[in-house]
Amino acid sequence: MGEFSALSTDLTADPQAAAELHRYAEALLAHLAANGAAPPTAPGFRDIPGYWLPPAVQALVSILAGDDPLEPLSRAAGRDQQQTALFLCLALAVAGHGSRIHASWLGTAFGELSLEQPVTHGQRALWLAAARGAYGPAGKIFVLRKLDALAVPDHADHRQWVQALAPGEPTVVVPASLVDFPEMAELPELARPAQAAARLARLRARCLEITSTRQAEHDSSTPLTNSAASPVTAWHEDEPLAVLRSLIGLGGPAGPMASLTSHLLDDLRPGADPYLAAIALHVAAPILRGVAEELEADSRLEPPTTLTVSLLGHPIALLPEGPESASLAEAEAAIEAQGTLPRRAPWAAILLVVAGVGSMAGGVVAGWPLAVMGVALLGLAGWQLWRRRAAIASDARFVAARVAELKELADGAIWALHAYAREADARAKQAADDSAELTRLIRRGPRAA
Questions:
Q1: Considering the entire predicted model, what is its pTM?
Q2: CA distance 143 to 369
Q3: Which of 153, 192, 204, 309 has CB atoms 3.0–4.6 Å from 434's, for a disulfide?
Q4: What angle do CA 310, 311, 312 make, to 5 degrees?
Q5: Please, which residues have CB within 8 angstroms of residue 373's CB and are 6 or more apart in sequence?
Q6: How many angstroms separate the Cα of 208 from the Cα of each of 9, 327, 448?
Q7: Which residues make Cβ contacts (< 8 Å) with residue 446, sequence separation at least 6?
């Protein structure tokens, strides 16, 4: 489109005429945005040879007054057909008279869309105006056909579109049956169906949000129809007016141009303009249908009959009738090995006993002090043996408690798997309903918004 590069006429040749033209054009835009009409005073500017804007402004004023615009329109189009068409399409949309445009003007003003080239500000402004109904159903259909012709889904990364539509997806979905065993929800065999069903439900909710948006809920923020004569400062997005100001030489729209895919992904994200979201959802419909079918198929995956889970750090094979005895025995042996400290023979206590007995025997000959020392040595030996026995008993209690906990967890995991299997039918049915409803919603297309 050249993005407003058609100001090739040398306006410095007649600066007074250019100043008069810009003053009137600026006043005209302000009136259009405020009440949809031209200024009450007659246009006070002269024609500038070779410049499309003066006759385009005259043609716009004639259209708003109900007069024949053919003569100034022909002059403007002869000087720059595309800029003239863009100016008239956007100005009439801002004024709330988009229905007065000629059918051919939109095609001329819009130009060609491309996946390889950025969307121009003029194209985006027309896109926005058409999405909000400024040109009636025909304008919306025009934009849809432009987008359909590019076959965007054939060049799209499906994950990118799903992420845009429903961002912030949880990394793990824990179904009700696995609340007590959340680590089991991370196992691929159990995670995939639950994750697929949850993702499908979120996509359905987002599509319902987009397609159920009513025009009346957004009249205050998107008054392109100008039925309430809302001032331009109340607009939620002023791209059309910014482009019009660029066309008349009052500065360009802020920010760089973006790619077609970037615009569509942004339009799909939560919080985006609902009218643009409806258009983007139509473009993404083939992608979403395929994703919905895949997610529904994943949600129907049968839970495994046997599963190996980690309980207390030990792999336990779970069977429908209970934990596998071999894996449970291995885990018990590992717990016993980890919970029982290796101990050598109580040689120190044995030596104390021998020394104590020897001292007591010597005390018979040497006197009572030696006998007292023997008793003390025997007492110390007994205390050491008692501590050893207490430690062995403590290890045994710990091992028994851990084994009991392991068996309890294994039984609980078995019951959780049974509950998960019972949930599978309900989950698959809900996923089928979500997929059918999502398909129905995206079939409605942008008409709903």
A1: 0.76
A2: 113
A3: 204
A4: 120
A5: 359, 363
A6: 50, 49, 10
A7: 131, 140, 144, 275, 278, 279, 281, 282
